[in-house]
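Hi C.,

You asked whether I'd gotten around to modeling the 109-residue construct. I have! Everything is below, sequence then structure, no commentary in between.
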Amino acid sequence: MEKTCDLFRGSSAWFSISTPKTTRAMWVRGGGSVEGADVAEYLFSNDVTSPDTHVLYPGAQIIVFHSDYVRTAFKLAKLPAVTDYALDPWPLIDFWKKLNMEQDHGAEE
């Protein structure tokens, strides 16, 4: 029988395709529910440039957290400070700049 707990009871989360399926399963075993990004309380990703994550950012005032938060909570058997797991959006900003430069360069040809 798998270990269950109430760490995430009453909380909802969205998980990017960049997060391991085992992390999502841990969230559910911890009592949390999985919802769409538009309604979830927590957004988890392991890579801000993941296709399903970077589309969340344009014009949105959101914070995406690294999914290690879930694993750490299970390991400690308590909730760590979620702010310690906020993903830095700067790699994403650099990604968009590069993408825009490539598109601009392609339009000139």
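If it helps when you're writing up: The chain has a mean pLDDT of 84.

Thanks,
B.
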